């Protein structure tokens, strides 16, 4: 459960909305489900999305993305939940703007204050400092608007508000590997240590009469 702390009180609760023969249920920070209320033997009942990440724009939490729901043709069902000001907590509207992509409107008094969905106050001091630095770099014209947005996206990912893309995770792993031998000296030093360890193991095997086959150059 990540995001504005005052919204955490919604966790563990579920809100229903009935339209035609379908009952929709939204459980904040958990999932969205749909249940067909008919007497048909194959009435549909399934998951339209599981809590995944926030939709963020202009320093504001716009809504919640629920993804990886039940399969739908070649993809998974997903739902975007819009948070709007209301007198009570209730699921007010449901639509399907495109096939297997749903849109829910959730009303709550918890977002009525103009600052209730601001991202900056929910960040740790460390990430707030990073944001301040990005603002300064943009002000000094040392980065472009595109570069600024990229830095903010990385801050939101680090905070857990957005999921890092798979490509980025792969890049991180490859960077870790490349940094292990960033200089020839470091590589030679590591090779020497491994060679010494290998020699010790070979001697140990010889002492116990265990045959060892292998080229030490490998």
TrEMBL record:
Gene3D superfamilies: Mannose-6-phosphate receptor binding domain
Matching Pfam families: PRKCSH
PROSITE patterns: DMAP1_BIND, MRH
MF terms (GO), sorted A to Z: transferase activity
Residue ranges occupied by any DMAP1-binding domain in the UniProt entry: 119-218
Keyword vocabulary terms for this entry: Coiled coil, Disulfide bond, Signal, Transferase
Coiled coil: 184-211
InterPro entries on file: DMAP1-bd, Gtb1-like, Man6P_isomerase_rcpt-bd_dom_sf, MRH_dom, OS9-like_dom
Residue ranges annotated for the MRH domain, each copy included: 12-114
Top-level taxon: Eukaryota
CC per GO annotation: Golgi apparatus
PANTHER family: N-ACETYLGLUCOSAMINE-1-PHOSPHOTRANSFERASE SUBUNIT GAMMA, N-LINKED OLIGOSACCHARIDE PROCESSING
Protein name, entry field: GNPTG phosphotransferase
Gene name, Swiss-Prot/TrEMBL: Gnptg
